[in-house]
Amino acid sequence: MATPHDQNNGTVSISRVVCVHPKIEQPHRVLSLSNLDRQCPRLMQLVFFYNNLMKNDLSLNSVFNGLKIGLEETLILWYPGAGRLMMMNPNNNNNNNNNQSDGKLNLWCNNEGAILVEAETKARISKLGDLSQYNEFFEKLVYKPDFDPNFSNMPLIVAQVTKFGCGGYSIGIGTSHSLFDGPATYDFLYAWASNSEIMKAITAKPLELPKPVHERGILLSSGNNNNHQELSKGCMNLPSSSNFYAHDDHNQPIRAMAVQHLYQLIMQATAEATLLQSRSDEPSENNYQKKWVLKTYHLSAAMIDNLKRKYLSSIKRGSLPFSTFEVLTAHLWKARTKALGLSKEKVVCLQFAVDTRNKMVPPLPKGFSGNAYVLASLMMSVSQLLDHSSHELIIEKIREAKNAVNHSYVKSYIDALELGSNNSLPPLKELTLVSDWTRMPFHNIEFFHGRKAAYASPLATPVPQVAYFMQSPFDVGGVDLRIGFQDGITLSAFTQCFLI
Fold first, then answer.
1. Which residues, including other chains, have CB under 8 Å from residue 396's CB and lie 6 or more apart?
2. What distance lies between CA 69 and its chain's CA centroid?
3. Is there a smaller number of Cβ atoms within 10 Å at the N or the C end of the chain?
4. Per-residue pLDDT reduced to its tens digit, 349-377
């Protein structure tokens, strides 16, 4: 029986839900996760749109079966994707991996399987408007499985293939952030698309696929604290204020700057909330419950070049140029802070994800599939950011923060999370978070052989205020920025500040 989902753009009817297992069953085992993996177990979701196919008469059944065969093949090497998250009891000596029963969130590789869904709609992709802009209808293009609040029964990979009335398709995919980070997700999806048989000629030369390495290795915490993480929290647990420092080989303290800055912001927000509460008999409003407005801004290659010339005209010829990420991040931080109208004496913080694969000693192995990102951080007052610092100086500080992420910083960061609390990150206007996806061009993944996606649209994320930089599929050198705001007034103000 088909399950309809009513939307203004039509209905989406689900006709099949199947559990997909590895083509070759793998031995059951426990995979120890790092503290980086444990921060956000939720599913991160992307919808791929394919609307200019050579064969518009492709049957839904053939597409579904091609994806299923490809997923079965891919899960042989990417077998953790067929497992489940679970809390390993440190007092349980009944399994063969007693040393991995650490009382924390780990991954039980048990071949439970991924979920693949077949669906259909009469809507036409051309009627959905700008695919880069978030649309609530997109949420119906990714299957949302029911699972226990503690995540232990949540499949780690879900996918839904939907045929549109125009003959085009969408493939909506959710992967647990505890399973893969962005680059690993890209490698997994690339492997799956390559193993699928949709529109692939029999004589097609097989592609060389990345071979994943699932062991977390040196990213596993060195701490002995037996902190029991709560599965039910789901995203971005808070670090403890008592562990900003780890120690290097010479017993010198190494600061986890991102952790220290986050704690300072929380203390600032707590003091402000206490002051506001003392002035009113009304309970303080939980702003995080407000509906977030997601917006995508397109920055053409020409706009980015103009921005660089505007802000970096004083750079001497022959000096090391700043990257597009550094320039855009500085501009974003200033524009967002100005749009929020924060008082000049407040402290604001910029944090952005840094890939540590080549920053560890030794480097993480090629094909590492876990979470390898930590947050770099810099902090200053609103007055310093907007009034007393040049754009060039902000960019230099961003580069300094990025370069400060080395092996010792990463270990300090991981150890700080070891002593984290089980409280989720509260909404902090003063915190600007940035994630760079420009090296992961998801739209280039060819689930339909020979056809790139018209767009790969991320859905609403667990932390909607994070700013994502993505490659534009239409403009070489162009960047799309996805960001969330809690009200239209701030969104309008940001648009005016950002698009200058």
1. none
2. 27
3. N
4. 999 999 999 999 999 999 999 999 999 99
Q: How far is CA 351 from the centre of its chain?
A: 14
The pLDDT of residue 226 is above 80: no
Alpha carbon distances (Å) from 224 to 227, 238, 252, 376? 9, 18, 19, 25
Report the catalytic residues: 177
In tens, the pLDDT along 320-355 reads 578 999 999 999 999 999 999 999 999 999 999 999
| Res 227 pLDDT > 90 | no
Q: What sign does the CA torsion over 390, 392, 395, 401 have?
A: negative
SS (H, E, C) the chain: CCECCEECCEEEEEEEEEEECCCCCCCCEEECCCCCHHHCCCEEEEEEEECCCCCCCCCHHHHHHHHHHHHHHHHHHCHHHHCEEEECCCCCCCCCCHHHCCCCEEEEECCCCEEEEEEEECCCHHHHCCCCCCCHHHHHHCCCCCCCCCCCCCCCEEEEEEECCCCCEEEEEEEECCCCCHHHHHHHHHHHHHHCCCCCCCCCCCCCCCCCECCCHHHCCCCCCCCCCCCCCCCCECCCCCCCEEECCCCCEEECHHHHHHHHHHHHHHHHHHHHHHCCCCCCCCHHHCCCEEEEEEECHHHHHHHHHHHCCCCCCCCCCCCHHHHHHHHHHHHHHHHHCCCCCCEEEEEEEEECCCCCCCCCCCCECCCCEEEEEEEEEHHHHHHHCCHHHHHHHHHHHHHCCCHHHHHHHHHHHHCCCCCECCCCCCEEEEEECCCCCHHHCCCECCECCCEEEECCCCCCCCEEEEECCCCCCCEEEEEEECCHHHHHHHHHHHCC
Could you tell me the two tokens for 392?
Answer: 């060039």
In this prediction, what percent of the chain has a pLDDT beyond 90?
61
For 396-443, the pLDDT digits (tens) are 999 999 999 999 999 999 988 886 555 556 668 999 999 999 999 999
* Strands across the sheet containing 105-109: 29-31, 105-109, 84-87
